[in-house]
């Protein structure tokens, strides 16, 4: 496949690469991770000022009408810096859900602010017992006249501790694991009845558990019919994560190759040992395989919802998950003990790659999803 970037896409990639390179030194990343926000608010503003948060949105909504390919180019560079900002959660997932389900008024009020970087949104779809099944929803919403009140608990809400708005899935009809009867609501995280338990994740980011006690929410779309949109936009998020993983893997491979060239044993660089050369080749092979699948995912991310699209996205996530874990493990092995220390950046790349391999489904989950699509076909 001849995948060449257009002049505009190359400029976009160069802009994102330069910004990440200038801001995200490893030492700065540690500072950002330790801050109250858990990321750089200044870097988030720069993403908005350069138009990078506006790429996926239509021109009518203040965006540039970018496709999954443009999103992949940005996510790959954010992956190279293992950036902490909730770009995927706010711009791609929350923005995509509002764009698909929202009324004209909701789009006008929220999407312009997300596109400019003024509003950081979060999405609360997972629950403690859902285990990758986004239709497993125990949080409930009950209508009270013209308003809705939500009660329940949401887990792993990345960026939820700093979000200006949070999109919450809640059940308005049906049983706990029914795909029908799921609705989506916009809540103010500072509203009465909302409490959050903030924590740091393994890869240095911050998220929260969200507790809702009779919280007023604004319905997004039609009650009980949100699951199809959640599934579709989750596919776009998966494609974005594949791009981020490729960026992180590429830098992890670069770090490992440089280490093999400089670390000496018995008077020679350890990269001279054939067995280590073979393992380095295997890392690069996994990276190239993952890159091909990330490109596939990016090209079909904005296609119409279909079983074929879902199957190919699951296949891409499966391959990228396997490659991400392999590169992470080999990076640690080839570096030796230094790769397990907090002070070395290779450890942080490995942790982020492992976390990506679990977001929106691990390899077993997507292998089963892919096989189910084959049975249906």
Automatic annotation (TrEMBL):
CDD domains: ACAD
Keyword set, alphabetical order: FAD, Flavoprotein, Oxidoreductase
Acyl-CoA dehydrogenase/oxidase C-terminal domain mapped to chain residues: 240-354
Boundaries of every Acyl-CoA oxidase/dehydrogenase middle domain copy: 123-215
Stretches assigned to the Acyl-CoA dehydrogenase/oxidase N-terminal domain: 6-118
Cofactor: FAD
Flavoprotein recorded as keyword: yes
Matches recorded under InterPro entries: Acyl-CoA_Oxase/DH_mid-dom, Acyl-CoA_Oxase/DH_mid-dom_sf, AcylCo_DH-like_C, AcylCo_DH/oxidase_C, AcylCoA_DH/ox_N, AcylCoA_DH/ox_N_sf, AcylCoA_DH/oxidase_NM_dom_sf
Family stated for the protein in its record: Belongs to the acyl-CoA dehydrogenase family.
UniProt xrefs under PANTHER family: ACYL-COA DEHYDROGENASE, ACYL-COA DEHYDROGENASE FADE28
Name by which UniProt lists this protein: Acyl-CoA dehydrogenase
Organism: Halopseudomonas formosensis
